[in-house]
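To assess whether the prediction recovers the assembly geometry, we first specified each molecular entity separately, as shown.
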Amino acid sequence: MAARVVAIIAGLSVAGLVIGPVIAVLLRAETFSGFGPADWQALRFTLVQALLSAALSVLFAIPLARALARRRFVGRGLLVALLGAPFILPVIVAVLGLLAVFGQSGLLNRVLSPLGAPQLQIYGLQGVLVAHVFFNLPLATRLFLQGWLAVPGEQFRLAASLGMGPRAMWRAIEWPLLKRIAPGAFAVIFVICLSSFAVALTLGGGPRATTLELAIYQSVRFDFDLGRAAALGLVQLALALAAGLVALRVASVPVAARGLDRMVPRWDGQGKGARMLDGVWIVVAAVFLLIPLAMVVLNGASGILTLGGSVWVSAAHSLAVALGSTVLCLAWALPLTTRWGEWLGLSGIALSPLVLGIGLFLIVRPFTNPFELALYVTATVNAFVSLPFVLRILRPEAEAIRADYGRLGGALGLSDWAWLRWVLLPRLKRPLGFAAGLTAALSMGDLGVIALFADPDRATLPLKIYQLMGAYRMEQAAGGALLLLLLSLSLFWAFDRGGRVGA
Amino acid sequence: MKPALAFAAGLIANTSLALADEKPVLTVYAGDYIVSEWGPGPRIEEMFEAQCDCDLQFKPGDLLPRILLEGAQTNADIVFGLNTDVTKKARESGLFAPHGQNLSALTLPIDWQDEIFLPFNYGHTAFVYDETRVEEVPESFDALLDAPDDLKIVIQDPRASVSGLALVLWVKAVYGDEAEAAWEKLAPKILTVTKGWSESYGLFTDGEADMVLSYTTSPAYHIIAEEDRTKKAAIFPEGHYFMVELSAKVAGTDVPELADQFLEFQLSEDFQTMIATGNWSFPAALPQEKWPEGFKELALPEKALFYTEDEAAALRAEAVEEWRRALSR
Amino acid sequence: MLELDAIEARSGSFTLTADFGIEAGARVAIIGASGSGKSTLLDVIAGFLKPRSGHVLWKDADLTDLAPARRPVSVLFQDTNLFPHLTIERNLALALNPRSGTLRKGDAARIEDALARVGLAGFAPRRPSEMSGGQQSRAALARVLLQDRPVLLLDEPFAALGPALKVDMLDMVAKVADAEALTVLLVTHDPADARRFADQTLLVENGIVGTPQPTQALLDDPPESLRTYLG
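The predicted structure of the complete assembly is given in tokenized form:
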């Protein structure tokens, strides 16, 4: 019973964080302007790029995750950890890293043009997709990889003893796995791309790549048209939740699959062709994902040494916020690891951060000075925004645990606490580590709830990076970005280490 | 759970600090780039507190949305760093009081008679380039439109950025009804459009673009802070769009004298000398001979183009839509 | 007495009806074809499946609305009787203190004692993956001992063990059941198990549970349907 109450509280607080701000903004709105042709164009582009980005990310993740799941090689653990990095970089840093490779004067063009190849043009829909795949392929890959690791060793043994070929493996193991994981992964990535703004615009090459989020930003910043901002925000929210519903309907419920926690040796995919194919996927993905990161490191190497003390202090603030967000987010997510909980949690990234920020500001303002709440609000919002990812990571495993051990727990009469302490948490260790690492790293890189909740004395590291850029100090900003990358990755790695044990 | 405790303890410790000071407080809302330690904020605070026996507190954030959301209950006494693109909305809100300052000291390239919004520095939109990378620098806006398409420029989105909007108005001021055609000619040279100035400038310094939409004052930073004289603003005879930064007194301030004193200080020679290198802009009330060394070197446009807020408001939607249409093709 | 009074239970499109009673302390085998409803019957008694109508009674007390843990019933499942990530000691501690899961004073000794009774003295610190199938079964039986509930349900718990081992385990269960005066229901598909273990047998056919009959007589002269099943 207590667990049910906790789940309801967790669910209501999510719903409240979505509905509250939207209502607050609508109540405050004075004007309601309708949709113009430009808005419809923005809606169309938003949908197209989000659909394609999510589809490509998931599509490429499937063979990559399979390759990583069945190969053992030196540096594999490091590679799996580094693969998480693009997802957690601040947008601008990642974009500059990407452009250093794919841009006009990027590595690729510098290598290709002496060979007489035509100039590679990144700007356009292709650029948006490259960037979104860069950000989200690692996430999708990790979700699939986790699914692979959850397949009981007995199934591989059975497959091996039956001498199942690739086709049979596909039908017996891989296809059910995809059906279970792909819809949710697609939904999360689709929703996160829905609210893309700076990336879509910069790499999209201009107003053709206008997204709804930009229209919301414009309504807030220039027009102060809150009604329009809220209306656009609701459209975005509706799209996201609809996508979530479809995904949850399509996704098959995990089947009970009990294993005995032994390491899983693999016998499948040992043929020459399979090995080559896996090798190619791993190398291509590593090059695609790691070289832009290397450029971030290269660009920042000289700047990082010149960073003043305040930047390091801001890094400490970011760390504190990140750890707070992580604890909050996991506590929030555990009771929501159900079908409807995951759907509800999607709203964390479905609601425009601008609408969320203004709404919270309007709600908080009558009671207290928002400046004083800046860090709390930032930590809460970071946790809220991480919920969809954390739920996607935790839910399949949590449901499998319930399916496998629920009857035993019920027969023993375990209390909610004993179930949590002795069964759920220990068995969830692997996904929990990954989820915690992701939340911590995401919170490090996140700018928080727009400038309405900036804390005058306690700037976070991403804010400092933007300040440096705003003051022409591009080199130091690059150094700050490198520092951020290192810290985020360290946090991610530290939490995820548990998750990668045996991965 | 320990990090969570430390986190909570840190937050509690933070909030208790503000109580200590007994001096009257002047609350100034300012953009993040002002408040930042690399902006003019810390120096403004230091200089003003030396003469006011008060506590000047900068609060960073999105200026206008914030003050409009807060309405009459705002804690702000001064709003520092507004641009002309929002002054109309700000004025209509009725939240601001006349500044009461004598405007004769202003040294702006245009005549400024606004009784609410008081300038502190200015610049012009300009395309900044690196002379080691661009061989044939366009000598006029026309020349820029006719330049080969492999000259790549990066600009800001007029729907999201103040400087981006200024560019659209600049094109409108130069080309009038032909603005859309001008955009069409410029379109193939536009590498991309970014959300804000920082992203654009980052692309430029990374060597991704040849020219960046920035300000006539941008080279001053490179000259003074980096002793780098290769970054230049291309000066066009058609004129450059005038961009001014303004402050205003909040009507409901509970420290009106302090607010007035701040506005007066803003026009003082000390402040004006400082703001040039503090905010990398031309001082609003300082004769050229008193400008810092690097600024005197800067190429200045002969003509400043400017729309009043009413003109700009009337033109904006159309100008942005022309831009959008031309670049969407 | 364990009574199932006019039970009708549904699981998906499958319907089970049962109406019978078993004397306390009896050992009863449940036999029937695959899919006939044997496990569903156990689910109803254990409380995992709520009947649409009818009542489950133990010594005249109505169990129908009680949660599994509140019933005087312990279960040995087909598999998953132990949490693989916990040591045997922890696994058994969960049976002793299902609220906190912690080891209280004296618990370690009780656990060791229960383990000794099933021949697993010294196995407390091991994890299930470090034990053979037979040892895991015995550890689960030790858990049943600690749970100390008068009714024990076994859902083909030893099906995966070898014939000799299975016989050993059944004998051990019989010994424990006698010592603790347990009422035991054993689901099995092996008539030899029924003969060896249970005086009485319940025949389940197409969702209909019969009444207990003497095992010997039933198996010596099986009705037509059972004969087909036994082959």
